[in-house]
Design goal:
alpha+beta; 3-stranded antiparallel sheet; 3 domains; 293 residues; 48% helix
Length: 293
């Protein structure tokens, strides 16, 4: 068993060392030092399955992302896999990693992510996603109400994605078991996870993805096997289409709730999915309450 060996012993395995040398070449020596230090300085990582630890570090290093977690590019997180009754190392990427990989592709003119404070947004175009902001003095004293990501390609294509704090919390609760238990990065550094979520979803849905960006999207929040298979032990992989669908469903719910007459209510009826009984019930209940003039 890999976890019965020390990290130094595991790294000396010929198959392991050969794979590292083939992939990293002259960077192999520094990689071995970094992984050994990481495992010896963190008691929980030392308990992790050694293959998962090495593969998480190897994947990040191959993409040119530093393993120093203080830099905010790549985090190696010990995860208690209760189903398998063992600890595994999970790779989690920071928002800085996605921005840097996008910049390296040479296709982006601008890419950024920011928090949004109360009163800053004056207008959102529902078709383009474009957001107009009002200048706010002492904005850092105002509460954060959301996060926005923005990208512009060299060919002129541009896109904005905005998510409220409530939407991001719901997203975290849906896709992270550790957040449901009140722990993990969503709990410890919500700002970083919210920023990463917005920029990742923006890129995965609208951006041309380089090989490294595709790898980052797949590897993020996964335990990686020796065969480069990704297991999402703490969450279900997030598809941009699912998020878009969820947001559209939220709009329909809001429209049903706020409709003042039958005509307004009927405007959203055709948007309800055939198998969405919950929304159909909401529609029927709202219809009963309306006074038809």
């Amino acid at each position: 068993m890999s976890n019965e060996l020390t990290i130094k012993q595991y790294l000396k395995n010929p198959e392991v060392s050969e794979r590292i040398n083939d992939l990293l070449k002259e960077k192999s020596s520094q990689f071995l030092i970094n992984v050994t230090q990481m495992a010896t300085q963190n008691e929980m990582l030392a308990k992790c399955d050694k293959n998962s630890l090495v593969m998480a570090c190897l994947t990040a290093t191959a993409m040119g992302l530093p393993l120093n977690q203080n830099l905010g590019f790549a985090y190696i997180i010990p995860f208690n896999n209760r189903k398998e009754e063992k600890y595994e190392a999970q790779l989690q990427l920071g928002y800085k990693a996605f921005i840097q990989l996008a910049q390296r592709s040479g296709q982006f003119k601008t890419i950024n992510v920011s928090d949004v404070r109360t009163g800053e947004i004056t207008h959102i175009d529902r078709l383009t996603g474009e957001i107009l902001f009002d200048w706010m003095e002492d904005r850092n004293k105002l509460p954060v109400v959301g996060y926005v990501g923005y990208m512009e390609l060299l060919n002129g294509f541009k896109k904005t994605m905005y998510m409220t704090v409530d939407e991001l919390k719901a997203h975290g609760m849906r896709f992270s078991q550790t957040m449901k238990r009140g722990s993990g990065l969503w709990k410890e550094d919500f700002d970083a996870m919210a920023s990463k979520t917005v920029i990742k979803l923006l890129l995965s849905k609208y951006a041309p993805l380089s090989v490294d960006m595709q790898t980052a999207t797949l590897a993020d929040q996964s335990v990686i096997s020796a065969e480069n298979e990704y297991e999402y032990v703490d969450n279900t992989p997030v598809l941009s289409e699912e998020v878009a669908s969820d947001k559209e469903r939220d709009r329909i719910v809001k429209h049903i709730t706020t409709s003042k007459n039958k005509e307004e209510l009927m405007a959203c009826y055709n948007a309800i999915g055939d198998d969405d009984d919950e929304l159909k019930n909401k529609y029927a209940e709202k219809l009963k309450t309306l006074t038809i003039k």
